[in-house]
From TrEMBL, chain A:
Bilayer disposition of the protein: Peripheral membrane protein
Taxonomic lineage of the native organism: Bacteria, Pseudomonadati, Pseudomonadota, Alphaproteobacteria, Rhodobacterales
Record key words, sorted: ATP-binding, Cell membrane, Membrane, Nucleotide-binding, Repeat, Sugar transport, Translocase, Transport
InterPro entries recorded: AAA+_ATPase, ABC_carbohydrate_import_ATPase, ABC_transporter-like_ATP-bd, ABC_transporter-like_CS, P-loop_NTPase
Residue ranges occupied by any ABC transporter domain in the UniProt entry: 12-248, 259-502
Highest taxon of source: Bacteria
Subcellular location: Cell membrane
Pfam families: ABC_tran
Species in which this protein is naturally found: Palleronia salina
CDD domains per the UniProt record, alphabetical: ABC_Carb_Monos_I, ABC_Carb_Monos_II
Listed name of the protein: Rhamnose ABC transporter ATP-binding protein
Record's GO cellular component terms: plasma membrane
TrEMBL record, chain B:
Residue spans crossing the bilayer: 47-65, 86-110, 116-138, 159-180, 211-229, 250-278, 290-308
Keyword Transport: yes
Superkingdom as given in the UniProt entry: Bacteria
Keyword terms: Cell inner membrane, Cell membrane, Membrane, Transmembrane, Transmembrane helix, Transport
Any single Gene Ontology cellular-component annotation: plasma membrane
Protein location: Cell membrane
MF annotations from Gene Ontology: transmembrane transporter activity
InterPro entries cross-referenced by the UniProt entry: ABC_transp_permease
Membrane-protein topology: Multi-pass membrane protein
Protein name, as recorded: Autoinducer 2 import system permease protein LsrC
Record flagged with keyword Acetylation: no
TrEMBL record, chain C:
Compartmental location: Cell membrane
Subunit architecture: The complex is composed of two ATP-binding proteins (LsrA), two transmembrane proteins (LsrC and LsrD) and a solute-binding protein (LsrB).
Domain of life: Bacteria
Descriptive protein name: Autoinducer 2 import system permease protein LsrD
GO molecular function, one term: transmembrane transporter activity
Predominant subcellular localization, coarse grouping: membrane
Organism the protein comes from: Palleronia salina
């Protein structure tokens, strides 16, 4: 084992790479090595710096400091084209594809086969695309418009795109996130084949079972720093989790002794034409209900329908025994149901507006008089809730966009608490925020529940789900698959339920 | 082929043919090849400008300065011709296109390097270019009798029984069909507008791609400047006033999505032809030409309502995906 | 950490910088500076400039456009645009002229003008908010449609038989040199300034323009707010149609031709972000004054209006380009 580590020379090596953005250090003195014919798993929580690293490797970002070394030579990637030419290709997490273009063109955009006079050879492009799609076992017509495909098929196109260049380094950023079990198996086969061809693979994943199944090496990132690296065979899942989270699990989460009270919310047979079906659950006073599932399982969609952003096709919502008619978020808010969205930048905070105006936006009715705003009232309300959340800012008229992710999240949570809700839905409340803010959010959540607020917490982080919830519901492919009490619940149970092979378990 | 039959272009083509047939029923002879060729010739300038605008709109921008650009280059060529009648038309054509390119590049640089919203840039240059016409001409007209015979004759000259104007238009269409569909830059227009964030991942410089769209649109506006002035044999400050919105209208009717990334060369051509046919059909059908503006407006609204692709949530349920 | 007893939370100040320093850095101050420079240049250029009657006359070059500009500013801040405003003027004016033919009195005419504005605004609003169509294209369409209907009705004819007292709206004076239009301009500046800057509605307009999704998630009924803004823009176009028709005393279908772009230019020059989310009514007022003074000053010098459009166009680009250019040069130096 030690032999391979010392003798093999890496295809690609990063040393001392640092990348900062205004207010945030995304990567700090990071090291990484990728070896031919081996899969290196990159492990880290959301916000650990993995995406930034991928963007640096693919020429989207340029590092502030440090070196990228390919085959022993230091290189620079001023553009995506430069990275591709150096033999680095990537399957990106977010679909960086084009809905209005055909599948074939999505695969070959930027490096399309040329025919006479240097013109794009469409016939050959379609043939080549078909061949690549065939190779990964995807039955997709290359002439289809990408926008007409489902999310899983789009992901297969993204994989095909990465394979359309003759690369030595293949980066896979959560490649299985939206694939079916059969598609995942095909992908594993493909990874084995690529290994056999001597390609170096960087495999980014949250799922430990797949990391242990296909990776040879691992590197762990935490808060923008590389905290550990080594051979998979020399480690265990527990050790990796500890490295990734930085502390042992008991220490992070607040202890909660409060017992949930009476039923507050009852959702019955909630359904949507394309997103979810048959969702029924209850929520009690002072309870934290965890909603677990893989990315794309439909959890946010259910919550957004409950909040009135989208209209369900069927189902009933009862709050304290009364049936609600929720046709818009304004209705939900009026009834005391609020939603802290996952996508802070797009759905939560209004970056170009000051903190106090963000906080008072849904509460303007209480801070105003006869429709006219009263700034003094606004500042008072904003101060009350931001200070309770220990917001770090220079002043309440500072624009939210200038705050760190964690503090932005505090502003969004303060905005909703200021409406004095009965039910608060938190969608990935600690995604992409620093450890300190995370702890503050968790502690605050526990306190709110103790004071009688009912909380639904959507989360993809198992420690958070296990550490915070009284009860956990698991969703998969838009359906509710199981419900668990916190007592005795193990990570394995959750992972199996969410991935859909609980039958094979035990 | 079945793909084409379901496309926006096929529907538009069907509407165009239906329009021609309806007019033919009221006025026999409208659908005769000779007359249709006249309609095409009459619409040539709109087609060329709409093609330039198509590139700009594909990249999620808009160019409102095309008509001013056209009027200024037209005036410059007319004045050059009036003062130097010996200057060959080819040289004037080159000057017109060159001047148009420069004006397009000015728009493009502001959009690319200073990242000023395109609508603001071209709203500004719309008035600037138009104002410069007055400055260079002193508000005077260049009338037909001051222009040389060659200057006026060139677009009208017949070649294989089609006027040169039509041939130029056909050449531009052909160049676009190849350039847009089969070159890297052509595809970059789609990528830069369809998903600018993703375009960066494919090595496309979105700003630079927009710049080239403006340059090409400007160059074509310059070309049309000469064509317009020589065809109508008069140049003055207000030439083609308000035409910028007609060009956008042709694109919209042609199914070029204003949000970028979607639309075809054929669509733009058909969109311009549709509006051009209405304009030519009204007088023969005995309808007052004053109806034209309202009909164009209605056509735009119907076209955009028809073409707007509604945002759909993603399909998560397996049962729903199977159905889709 | 959070509200644990014993630990006193840090007190956040309301505002970071004091009021004067914030004001000094604002766009409006830059514009006001430009306005003063132009004013001084005008006094130097022509001895007739400072005549109060001349100055009063000069305001008519912008009052009607600015009235629409105020509503347009709110619409643009919310992230939409209405290019059909001049078309609405044409249609409203035609409707008034048509009614005047049949002897309708002044109150009825005004009502008709405003009603056409409301209907046109509602039509735009429905297309944008109910059908979800992009406003820039929809209103290019309705621009042609509204003016096109005027052309169908009028062709190359004109209406001119307006009652004598109707002229007051365009040529009347309220007090000394203060014209009715100028009074209306000031009144609407106050109303729209108050609406945008001091009401919940105005706050919601800003929120929508900055981030419509987050605004929706915050319980704002985005479609309703936008619908109201289209209605307001329509009504203001109707008001402008009354004033302009009264001032000209006649209606042709080409009335107020190409005003839409002049109005948008005025609004953007006033510091309203074409991308939405930022801007003030004060800025639009100053921009209107600048455009008015430049038109008037150059007019006194016998410079034709079209040349002054070069100035407006260049100013529009320059005021936006210069700060970015400086930023770009600074960035170039540091890296």
């Amino acid at each position: 084992m030690k032999d391979t580590e010392t003798t093999a020379t890496p295809v690609l090596r990063l040393s001392g790479v640092t990348k900062t953005f205004p207010g945030v250090t995304a990567l700090s003195q990071v090291e990484l090595a990728l070896y031919p014919g081996q899969v290196t798993a990159l492990i880290g929580e959301n916000g650990a710096g993995k995406s930034t690293l991928v963007k640096i490797l693919t020429g989207i970002y340029q590092p502030d400091e440090g070196q990228i070394v390919v085959d022993g030579d230091p290189v620079r990637f001023p553009s995506a084209t430069a990275a591709t030419e150096a033999g680095i290709t990537a399957i990106h997490q977010e679909t960086v594809l084009f809905d209005e273009l055909s599948v074939a063109e999505n695969i070959f955009l930027g490096h399309a086969p040329r025919g006479r006079f240097g013109l794009i050879d469409w016939a050959r492009m379609r043939e080549d695309a078909a061949a690549i799609l065939d190779r990964i076992g995807a039955r997709i017509d290359p002439r289809t418009l990408l926008g007409d495909l489902g999310i899983g098929s789009k992901h297969l196109v993204a994989i095909a795109r990465a394979l359309s260049v003759d690369a030595r380094v293949v980066i896979m950023d959560e490649p299985t996130a939206s694939l079916s079990q059969a598609e995942i198996e095909e992908l594993y086969d493909l990874v084995e084949r690529l290994k056999g061809e001597g390609k170096a693979i960087l495999f980014i994943s949250h799922k430990f079972d797949e990391v242990f199944r296909i990776a040879d090496r691992y590197t762990v990132f935490r808060d923008g720093e590389m905290v550990d690296a080594g051979m998979i065979a020399d480690t265990t899942e527990d050790k990796l989790v500890e490295k990734m989270v930085g502390r042992s699990m008991d220490a992070i989460f607040p202890t909660r002794e409060h017992k949930p009270g009476d039923e507050v919310l009852r959702v019955e047979d909630f359904a949507h034409p394309t997103e979810f079906d048959g969702i029924s659950f209850t929520l009690r006073r002072g309870e934290i209900l965890g909603l677990y599932g893989l990315v794309g399982a439909g959890r946010s969609e259910v919550m957004q329908a409950l909040f009135g952003v989208t209209r369900p096709s069927r189902g009933q919502v009862r709050l304290n025994g009364e049936t609600l008619r929720i046709r818009a978020p304004a209705d939900a808010i009026a009834n005391g149901i609020v939603y802290v969205p996952e996508d802070r930048g797009k759905q939560g905070a209004i970056g170009a507006m000051p903190i106090f105006q963000n906080v008072t936006l849904p509460s303007l009715g209480t801070t105003s008089k006869a429709g006219f705003v009263r700034m003094a009232e606004e500042f008072a309300l904003a101060r009350k809730y931001t200070e309770r959340l220990d917001l770090r800012a220079s002043a309440l008229d500072q624009n939210v966009g200038n705050l760190s992710g964690g503090n932005q999240q505090k502003v969004v949570i303060a905005k909703w608490l200021a409406t004095q809700p009965a039910v608060i839905i938190l969608d990935e409340p600690t995604k992409g925020i620093d450890v300190g803010s995370k702890a503050a959010v968790h502690e605050f959540m526990a306190e709110l529940a103790a004071k009688g607020l009912s909380v639904i917490m959507v989360s993809s982080e198992i420690p958070e789900i296990l550490g915070m919830s009284d009860r956990v519901i698991v969703m998969r492919d838009g359906l509710m698959v199981s419900e668990h009490d916190r007592d005795g619940l193990t990570p394995e149970t959750l992972v199996r339920a969410a991935a859909g092979y609980e039958g094979e378990a035990a | 082929m079945t793909g084409f039959l379901k496309s926006r272009e096929a529907i538009l083509l069907g509407a165009l043919i239906a329009l021609i047939l309806v007019v033919e029923m009221r006025f026999s002879g409208f659908a005769a090849p000779g007359n249709l060729a006249d309609v095409f010739n009459d619409t040539s300038i709109l087609i060329i400008l709409a093609l330039g605008q198509t590139l700009v709109i594909l990249t999620r921008c808009i160019d409102l300065s095309q008509a001013s650009n056209l009027a200024l280059t037209g005036m410059v060529t007319a004045m050059l011709n009036a003062s130097m009648p010996g200057l060959p038309v080819v040289v004037l054509l080159a000057i017109a296109m060159g001047l148009g390119l420069v004006m397009g590049a000015f728009n493009g640089i502001l959009v690319w390097k200073l990242e000023i919203p395109p609508i603001v840039v071209t709203l500004g240059t719309l008035t600037i270019y138009r104002g410069i016409i007055f400055v260079v001409s002193g508000g005077e007209w260049v009338n037909s009798h001051e222009m040389s015979a060659a200057y006026k004759a060139f677009p009208r000259a017949e070649f294989l029984s089609l006027p040169v104007m039509s041939w130029i238009c056909l050449a531009v269409i052909a160049a676009f069909a190849i350039g847009v569909n089969r070159t890297a830059l052509g595809r970059a227009f789609y990528a830069a507008g369809g998903n600018p964030g993703a375009a960066v991942y494919t090595g496309i410089d979105v700003g630079k791609t927009r710049f080239w769209a403006f340059v090409i649109a400007g160059g074509l506006a310059g070309l049309c400047g000469y064509l317009w002035v020589s065809r109508y044999a008069v140049a003055y400050t207000d030439v083609a006033g308000g035409f910028e919105l007609d060009i956008v209208a042709a694109c919209v009717v042609g199914g070029i999505a204003i949000m970028g990334g979607s639309g075809t060369v054929l669509g733009a051509v058909l969109g311009a032809l549709f509006l051009g046919t209405i304009k030519n059909a009204l007088p023969v059908a005995g309808i007052s030409p004053f109806w034209q503006m309202a009909i164009s407006g209605a056509a735009i609204i119907i076209a955009v309502a028809f073409n707007t692709r509604r945002e759909t949530g993603r399909v998560i349920l397996k049962s729903a995906e199977a159905k889709a | 950490m959070s509200i644990a007893e014993g630990t006193k939370p840090r007190r956040l100040p309301d505002r970071l910088s004091s009021r004067p320093s914030r004001i000094l850095k604002s766009w409006e101050v830059l514009l006001a500076g430009i306005a003063i420079l132009i004013f001084l240049a005008n006094t130097q250029a022509s001895p007739y400039f400072l005549n109060p009657w001349n100055l009063s006359d000069a305001t008519l070059a912008f009052t009607e456009k600015a009235m629409i500009g105020f509503a347009m500013a709110l619409l643009i801040i919310s992230g939409e645009i209405d290019l059909s405003v001049a078309g609405i003027i044409a249609l409203a004016s035609t409707a008034m002229g048509f009614a005047a033919q049949y002897g309708m009195g002044t109150p009825g005419l005004v009502l008709i003008g405003l009603a056409v504005g409301v209907v046109c605004g509602a039509f735009n609003g429905v297309l944008v908010t109910r059908l979800g169509l992009p406003s820039i294209v929809v209103t290019i369409g309705t621009m042609s449609l509204f003016r096109g209907i005027s052309y169908i009705i009028l062709g190359d004819q004109a209406y001119g038989d307006y009652p004598d007292d109707f002229a007051f709206f365009g040529r009347g004076y309220v007090f000394w040199v203060i014209s009715f239009e100028l009074t209306l301009f000031a009144l609407f500046a106050l109303i729209y300034g108050g609406l945008l800057h001091f009401t919940n509605f105005g706050r919601q307009v800003y929120a929508i323009g900055n981030n419509a999704t987050a605004a929706t998630f915050s319980g704002i009924r985005v479609a309703r707010v936008k619908m109201i803004l289209f209605l307001l823009t329509g009504v203001m176009s109707g008001v402008a149609a009354v004033c302009l028709t009264a001032r000209l005393g006649s209606t042709r279908p080409s009335i107020a031709f190409a005003w839409e772009l002049e109005i948008v230019t005025m609004v953007v020059l006033g510091g309203v972000s074409i991308l939405g989310g930022a801007g003030s009514i004060l800025g639009v007022v100053i921009a209107a004054l600048i455009i008015g003074m430049v038109t008037f000053g150059l007019g006194l010098l016998n410079v034709p209006g079209i040349v002054m459009s070069i100035f407006t166009g260049a100013l529009l680009i320059a005021v936006i380009a210069l700060p970015r250019l400086i930023l770009l040069i600074r960035k170039g130096r540091t890296s």
